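Retro notes, item 3 of 5
We never archived the inputs for the zinc ion complex last cycle. Fixing that now. Sequence and ligand:
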Amino acid sequence: MSQQGYVAAPPYSQAQPGMGAYQGGFGSGPTQPLYGHYGGPPQAFSAPPAVAPAASMPLPAGSSQYNPNVQQNDCTDSDRLIFLEVQTTNMASPGPPPTQQLTNQMSSMNLGIQGLQSPPPPASSVVQQPFQTPPPSTMAPPQMPPGLQSPHMSPLMSPPQSPPESMPMASQSMAGTSMAGMGRPFPGPPPPGPGGFQQPGLGSAGQFGGYMAGPQQNMPGAFPGAQSAMAGPPQKKLDPDSIPSITHVIEDDQVKQGGQVFTTNIRGQVPPLVTTDFTVTDQGNASPRFIRCTTYSLPCTADLAKQCQVPLAAIIKPFASLPKNETPLYVVNHGDTGPVRCNRCKAYMCPYMQFIDGGRRYQCGFCNCVNEVPVFYFQHLDHMGRRVDFYERPELSLGSYEFVATLDYCKNNKPPNPPAYIFMIDVSYNNIKSGLVKLICDELKTLLEKLPREEGMETSAIKVGFVTYNKVLHFYNVKSALAQPQMMVVSDTAEMFVPLLDGFLVNYQDSRAVIYNLLDQIPDMFADTAESETVFAPVIQAGVEAFKAAECSGKLFIFQSSMPTAEAPGKLKNRDDKKLVNTDKEKTLFQPQKGVYEQLSKDCVASGCCVDLFLFPSQYTDIATMADVPSHTGGSVYKYSNFQIETDGEHFLRDLRKDVQKSIGFDAIMRVRTSTGFRATDFFGGIYMNNTTDVEMAAVDCDNGVTVEFKHDDTLSEETGALMQCALLYTTIGGQRRLRIHNLSLNCSSQLSELYKSCETDSLINFFAKSAYRAILNQPLKNVREILVNQTAHMLACYRKNCASPSAASQLILPDAMKVFPVYMNSLMKTAPLVGSTELSTDDRAHQRLSVMAMGVEDTQLLLYPRLIPLHNIDVNSEKPATPVRCSEERLTDSGIFLLENGQSMFLWLGQASSPDLIQSLFNLPSLCALPELDNPLSRKVRSIISGLLEKRSNSMKLQIVRQKDKPEMLFRQFLVEDKGLHGGASYMDFLCYVHREIRQLLT
Ligand SMILES: [Zn+2]
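Structure as it came back at the time:
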């Protein structure tokens, strides 16, 4: 009962020194915690979730608005439906419309709904739709479904019950949303598209059998070359506005939740969309910036999970950047004994530990083990059974925080050295000739001043080193005492070693003069080189050896121009073969070559050596193999094909600057613990796994996202919910060993409707992208695409069957939280890795595949649904960001100017009839290859939009300017993801119809 064991520490609601100075027990805090929830009375999160189900948790005043789930347990399922097809038609007209007019009406449906004054909605807002006609037969998909022809649209059943203002997008609190209808778009099953997009459904395991039609012609966005002859009556063009739109969903969420505070005090609450601009206050669960889930309500049993086929996964970005107005993580010090952990499952102290027995013991929320409270950690409980120091200890009241790690958590029980960055420059002929070497050397002089440093520190603790290479490696001694740098050459690349220890890795500030000298000399030293061959694996090996010798972790920045063909370990040869595309052997194009690089990844991870590769290829370089080590060490691969300094130099430098300055942790190992009943079973990311539970990363930066899949191993309890704790052990940029903890609590339900209601489409698509991109290593692409479509149909069919109120089979009913899921899924299937086309570069496909594997939710969202921003009508004086439009040719206008970006590429599209004044304002003709800095409002506005985007994105993007109907426009058009794919793949509309048909088959 002694209190003297308690480590006295200042309450962390007080102003504290910055992170890093944590010797005072809790260490750091922000100068001012946001919204005063720590200093203030205990107003929120008043009980550990383990004992209080979310619905009955006391809420702080004003927080209920962020808590849609709690209040809605009693609403009917109809409020989460979207009706496609005929049901809404008589919203616009009081009586059932004659059948033959239906198609016409459908195209104007949305307008009709929004302007609706009469008839009034039924008195009861929860009325079910009593369909009197039997569900239409599914035997005649090519024809208009019987449902369309039957006069079953009495006002009683069809108007959705929501008031007009809730149209067209669903609101969580509104009772019902209708999308306008659309007709039957499949007049006949055309053959699979010539572009190679084999429609799924063929030859599948039987579960989803049946021949399916290919992409439809005569659709908006149909690609030239599609067959146009069709059976059946001519179809009216469908109104694309009638199908769910991602831009609307994004806008809608921004209006609803933008600028607001998201408080994480409620279990299982679905966060705002990843695209929405909001502020997070941590009150017991990790911010959605750190963890997002595919659903926030897990099904209670494995059977339910299997039934719905909705993947249960979390996307964890342990080092996500926080906006300036959010509190950085507190650092907690539990002293010499290390962080308090459960004896059995080793979970770290967190808000889910329940203190009992007067505070002497606590029950673990993960494994239920009852643990003694260590003497130093004892604290009395208040009348509610909560420790009186609840608000003073981040680990009791917050979702995310850090622990100081003791020597037990360090390699060889020794505190780590600060990490090092080694710059390894290929000085072969190509890189010298292009001016790249000089560009890099000049840039490093200023960039090295900006190496990341611990908050509050004046200089960076990161050491730097330099290597140049072609067929041999040159190491440089840049010790501060030297007047001139010294070069040491290693030509035996088979047995790589580091020829010098002292003076290779140095503190930049100390050795600045020698380093400057070196960087000035390098371009001249190799100016006359004729050497065009390079090595690659020995370069990485040299980095590993250097880190081993210096007993530190760190990162290699490798600037390489070509495939390594010189005689050395890891020598590669051209194995590109377009004949493999669309065959069962296509997967080999994505597989890295085995052997040297496999072992190298292992060595790198073991010594905390992250590899970033900057590639400047003029031809095929076998990226699948060259990027193998970066992709297993948390590194990035940047590719600048046919690099030219004038057009690509700035783009490359922006990438390099961002990369060097990123916030990052080294030599990391991550473990995801869960409460009983489910567990993490699969991991996707820039990671390495030696066993089934420990996720190893040589480094993890603010953009790295690890996707974790969960499976049941028992029944989950609705009462206690499901808990997860992600613990990441790593070395800071200052050389401190820390544990970063993120906790998240989810709901559990035996009702599938709860699961669907709590789905997060952006997270789902991140999971599907990564799992598909991994699957193509082992399976034919056709199978992978089939699985994606089948699972989409299955998820939606299960919703339809179990959660939606009865309705005509001709209706496509989508859960509100997943209404734009099909757009993303279709876009995913049209991405370069998944579409079998000989026109695509093998390296580009491999590169995209590997980039996506390490992405977080924001990045996959943007990649799969680019922003298309009209610029011709922007208000140059407005502060408001320009509103994007849907990614479809339909949205382009001949007189328009549009900006398109997806986080990887950026285009400025100029319509052929765009106003000469606009062009003049932007370009000062005739130069159209770059955007000059002109002194007029439009030019300033457009450039500020572009620079704003470049700042925000993790990669720099090269602005490509394309004119309508010019040849390069094709590059741009492939990003209009709602249209038919350039290299195969259906339009969004076709895909939706196709999925609908699959669903109908599943339901019969
Ligand atoms: Zn435990």
